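Quick question, first post here. What does this chain look like in 3D?
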Amino acid sequence: MERFRDTVALVTGATSGIGKAAALEWAKEGAKVVVAGRRSDKGEAVAREIREAGGEAIYVAADVTQEKSIAAMVAATVERYGRLDYAFNNAGTPGENFKTVAEQTRASWDAVIATNLTGIWLSMKYQIPEMLKAGRGAIINTASNFALVGSDFGIAPYVASKHGVVGLTRSAGLEYARRGLRINAVCPGFTLTELVEPALEHARDQFMADIDRRVPMGRIADAREVAQAVLWLASDDASYMTAQTLSVDGGLISGC
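> Answer (accepted):
Ran it through. Tokens below.
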């Protein structure tokens, strides 16, 4: 099945984790993929993996905290492929963990907001005009299960940024609903990515016990499971979905 043949998909934060999984899945389904991220070695490796499997992809260096970098990223996409059909704004950072609100530093707060929230706004700022040229398109923004609830894990800047992503996504989805664009957010729960691997390495038993206690399905998601939800939101199968959040969390939020 190639739901995305002859289309162009741009993925930020595509050098690993959910972003990489989405880039690979989009390529398998026929899309030309722009792999965007800061780590050139990993980004080139993802693009090369896609090409070696028979797909089409390029790597574009991009830092979503820098407006000029985002503008160049979108321009490079259009220059190479002539259009932009889908965007998955996935780049993010967890910030400092296990610090209360009063213990958090201004530098950490600014870094998290700049990447997780402002970076998504800036990405859409440049992606939307290109999609409007064609009169259609779909954008999916990465929020989090912590975009829907609070947390006592000492990650308040992250939680605040992801709540902001939901509000931004809903507003953008409503603004462009009659102009052919669909804009939604995916809210992953605990997923096997670089963000989770350190916890598994240093306190695996404690971490997995917490997963078993908190997650109704009793396990961590594979990045591909979240990527499949992203592709569904982008596809025509989700043609009546906009300004929505889709939780992919093993039932975690519903059980809170």
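The beta strands are 8-12, 32-37, 56-61, 86-89, 137-142, 181-188, 245-248.
The domain at 8-191+222-248 is CATH 3.40.50.720 (Rossmann fold).
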